[in-house]
Write a structure and sequence with these properties.
There is one protein chain. The chain is mainly α. Helix content is about 60%, strand content about 5%. It has helices at about 5-15, 30-35, 40-50, 55-65, 100-110, 120-140, 145-160, 170-190, and strands spanning about 75-80, 85-90. A two-stranded antiparallel ribbon has the order 1-2. Helix 2 packs across helix 3 (about 40-50) and helix 3 packs parallel to helix 6 (about 120-140). The protein is globular, with a radius of gyration of 19 Å.
C-alpha cells in the first residue's frame, strides 16, 4: 500500500475517533424526541439508573438545566470593561456542568479514570454518583429532585450550610428542575418504541 493512501486512511480513522455530538437535540422540551433522536442516550440513562438508582427523567431534567444537552457547554466568558477577556465564571463543562475538582473526585472515586464531561455516558454516571453521595452525605432521598438539585448546585457543604436559602432565583430553578422531571417522566411513559 502506498504511503499517501496509508496517511489518508490513518487521518480518516483518527478523525472518526474524535467526532462528538456537541449540538443539542432538536427538541429538548420533549423527552420522546430526545431519545428518538439520540438513542444512545437511552443506554446511558439505563446504566446510570442501574449503577446509582437515579431515574432517567431525573437525569434528563438535570442535564436540561445544566447544559440544555449541549455536550461541550461551558459558562460564558467574562469581560473587564466589556472588552478585555477575564476567563469564565467557573470551570464547569459538559452535559453535567461538572467543575474540574468535582470531576476529578468522581473519576478517582468511581474508577472512571478516562471519563469525559462531554460524553453522555460519563456525564450521566457522574450525576448518578453525585446524587448518591448527596443521599449519603446530606440524607436527601434519591427521588427528592428539588433538594437533590439544590445540593448539586451548591455542593454538599453549601447545602448543609443552607447557602441556597438566600437565593430566590435558585429556589425557582430547583422548582423548575423538579417540574421538568415530572414532565419528562410523563412523556417517557408515553413514548412508542422506547423502554426506560
Amino acid at each position: 500500500m502506498s504511503r499517501p493512501l496509508i496517511a489518508v486512511l490513518l487521518l480518516l480513522a483518527l478523525g472518526s475517533c474524535g467526532s462528538r455530538e456537541y449540538r443539542a437535540p432538536e427538541q429538548v422540551e420533549n423527552a420522546c424526541a430526545i431519545v428518538t433522536e439520540r438513542p444512545h442516550y437511552v443506554t446511558a440513562f439505563q446504566r446510570a439508573e442501574r449503577r446509582w438508582g437515579v431515574e432517567p427523567h431525573v437525569l434528563m431534567a438535570i442535564i436540561h438545566q445544566e447544559s440544555k444537552f449541549i455536550a461541550n457547554n461551558r459558562p460564558p466568558r467574562r469581560f473587564f470593561l466589556g472588552i478585555i477577556p477575564r476567563g469564565r465564571a467557573s470551570s464547569a463543562y459538559g452535559y453535567a456542568q461538572a467543575l474540574d475538582g468535582t470531576w476529578d473526585d468522581y473519576k478517582a472515586d468511581a474508577g472512571r479514570r478516562f471519563a469525559r464531561r462531554d460524553n453522555v455516558d460519563d456525564a450521566t454516571d457522574f450525576i448518578g454518583w453525585y446524587m448518591r453521595r448527596t443521599n449519603s452525605v446530606n440524607g436527601i432521598a434519591m427521588n427528592d429532585v428539588y433538594n437533590q438539585y439544590l445540593a448539586y448546585h451548591e455542593g454538599h457543604a453549601g447545602y448543609r450550610r443552607g447557602t441556597y436559602r438566600s437565593k430566590a432565583w435558585l429556589l425557582n430553578v430547583a422548582a423548575n428542575v423538579r417540574s421538568r422531571a415530572v414532565t419528562y417522566e410523563r412523556q417517557l411513559a408515553s413514548c412508542r418504541g422506547v423502554r426506560l
